[in-house]
Amino acid sequence: MASENTGTGHGGTRPARVLISGASVAGPALAYWLHRYGFHVTVVERAPALRPGGQAIDVRGPALDVAARMGVLDEIRDHATDLRGMSVLDESGTEVFRSTEVTASGGRLDRGDVEILRDDLSQILVRAGGPGIEYLFDDSIAALDDGPDEIRVRFASGRERAFDLVVGADGVHSHTRRLAFGPDSGRLRPMTGHLGVWTAPNVLDLDRWQILYRLQHGPAWGGLVMSVRKNAEMRVYVGVDGEDPFDPALRDPEAQKRMIAARYADVGWEMPRLLNYMWDAPDFHCDVGLQVHLDSWSRGRVVLLGDAGYCGSPASGQGTSMAMVGAHVLAGQLKAAAGDHRAAFAAYERELRPWVTANQALAERHIAQGPPDQGVSSEGDWYDDAPGPDGRPFYEVVDDFTVRAY
């Protein structure tokens, strides 16, 4: 799509130069909109290429509207997990609950929401942005020098460049946030234990189906397994409680694998076989469930987007939607402000924060209620009927944002 040429830089004489840190979902979504509005956009990503793997994520409510305006909604639907339903098994492996109306990972199946693998969505968003967006892989921001007219960036590679703005879209452990805002102390709120995810062959012969194996006692939650990519493979999820959420040793993937293996050493069902695939999985990922809470999402010429600024944790079910909607709002406000980043950042936060706060509160409800099982009175209760912390049902919160034109 042709640029609208509205992103003015210093003195309005050139396009504003924006550096985005992070190329998962929030970063490429913002890059798309900024490039469309005439900004000069660079995205830096620490990984050597777009990262493989990651859990299935959800594009819901107003995020569907954003995807439609980007022209990618049909492609997102083409890559949906397209699950038909789910089963819940007890510790003995006996099925105790079955539904074709809801899944634990995606929610109600009678809505237009889309569950999609994170890496598939990332690739779609990057392609949508087109060749006019500069991507710097295998690099990261090492230092920031925020000045009155520009912000100078030194990269880990040693190169130095100047930009008008820097956006931290580099996730819950955002290095950009720490560089601009200082230490994370008090800003990260643990919500759940560690969640591990990896790809395995579809050895369970699942047909667009999800199985939740539940453990009632001990630090291991159990496993969630779902067929993906037209049943060609599975994504395996495991959860572990009781570990220090801020233990630096548990940021190492091999240490995470050993921790998971120890906690799941004596569990039943198919878990021993599924754990065998963990050791050599090229897309293994493990992290602790955290929320990010900041009094302000910007400082000087640096602004935060998505999980870096307001992560809701996987328990909210809304991280991807908040990232995509946030990208649209941030880019729109930068366009509307015609170069006044202070006004744009304030308007972005003013417009988005009430919805973000309500969505973060959904995590508390999901943790308290737990996933659907034989104890719910209706298969839709878990995701819809029961009120959340602010008294509103889940989908009322999800849909309570109007995507406007800028």
What does this structure look like?
- By secondary structure, the chain is an alpha/beta fold.
- The protein contains twelve helices and 20 strands.
- The strands form five sheets. A seven-stranded mixed beta sheet has the order 5-4-15-16-17-14-18, with helices on both faces. It has a six-stranded mixed beta sheet with strand order 9-2-1-13-20-19, sandwiched between helices.
- Helix 1 runs parallel beside helix 9, helix 2 crosses helix 9 (319-337) and helix 9 (319-337) packs antiparallel against helix 10 (341-369).
- The longest helix is centred in the last third of the chain and has 29 residues, at 341-369.
- Residues 374-382 have low confidence and may be disordered.
